[in-house]
Amino acid sequence: MNQYLDFQLNSEFANDALRRCARVTEDLVETLGNLGALVSIDVDGIGRATFTAGHSNLEKTRSVQVGDVYQIGSQSKTITAMILFLMARDGLLDLDDPVRDYLDLPIDRRITVRHLLMNASGLGEFTMGMSTQRLDPRINFAPRDLVALAFPQGQIFEPGARFDYCNTGWVIAAMMIEAISGRSYGDMADARIVKPLGLMNSGFGGTIPAGEPMRGYMDLPFARDTIDTSECLSWAFGAGDGVCSADDILAIYQSLLRPDSALKISLDDLARETMKPDAAPYFPMSWGTEYGLGLERRAWAGSEVWGHPGSTGPCGTSTWIDSERRVAVTTAVTHHMKPGAIDGDLRYPRAQLFAMALSTGYALAHERDQSCPSDTALTIRTPS
């Protein structure tokens, strides 16, 4: 296990929190059998602590490094929402326009762009239309083919009636970006998000960024192949095909808290309006979530945070920001998926991991608030 600290602390309370977070990161590999793990915690006025454990490849010849890139999964939804928000601000569309004003798709005329970005379209879920027994993630899926997989499920509920996760809507959202701009989704993400924020290790829409990857692996049930899935993302177009480093994904979410951000998008812009799920949601992971424009509202460690989890099968991730305490955390865990495995939730106890990372951030924020005014820096470079 490695740890990288941008600061040094005298408080045993804060140091104990860091030690326990490091132990949880290590436990994900040593006890729960994951391949690699990374946890990065950023506290304004203190600095950043990053913990890594395990390996970035199946051969276990390379340890996970702080600058590695990894699949961010559904955190990509936040980026897709930010691009469309910027396009709407530029007058290229209205978030309350019907989707069919821009795309020729056989969907309900009442479904708007906003419905897509709030998971409130009522469309079927394309991932439920995929045969997991025959799925080969190396196949290059076309976006319209993904959308077509959801059509046999019909319209699940009235557009705008509630929040219910719908990856299909995000594929359509990325298709809209391309139809309106005349550019690829990946190019638009680069132009509207990556370059303005000065990100060095991020790619979307099939763009694989520089940097060594934290690789995830999958055994195919119908063959004897073990697949490195680190570049197999066409099936997640617009909904989960992003690849970032920890520094970059933190920069994207933290930009929502900074008035001087080059994007000029605030947390309030994306979180002002929210929706809640039905008591028995169609997509089970919708339960317990409040959703804005590409953002979840949660309280993993007892305080309000905004962000998004993500999963691409062998890679589970998340980023969460607390605007009041000026804390941000990001996590990534990779493993080797095998056919018929039912231990996913046990192998990747995300609620425990998210709460541990945030609680550690709160311990550091307490140290900051007790030690100095908010405008006093405590950062001293002492990597260990």
From TrEMBL:
Matches recorded under InterPro entries: AmpC-like, Beta-lactam-related, Beta-lactam/transpept-like
Question: A Pfam family this protein belongs to?
Answer: Beta-lactamase
Output the superkingdom of the source species. Bacteria
Instruction: Please report the stretch or stretches of sequence annotated as the Beta-lactamase-related domain.
Output: 30-334
| Protein name from the UniProt record | Beta-lactamase
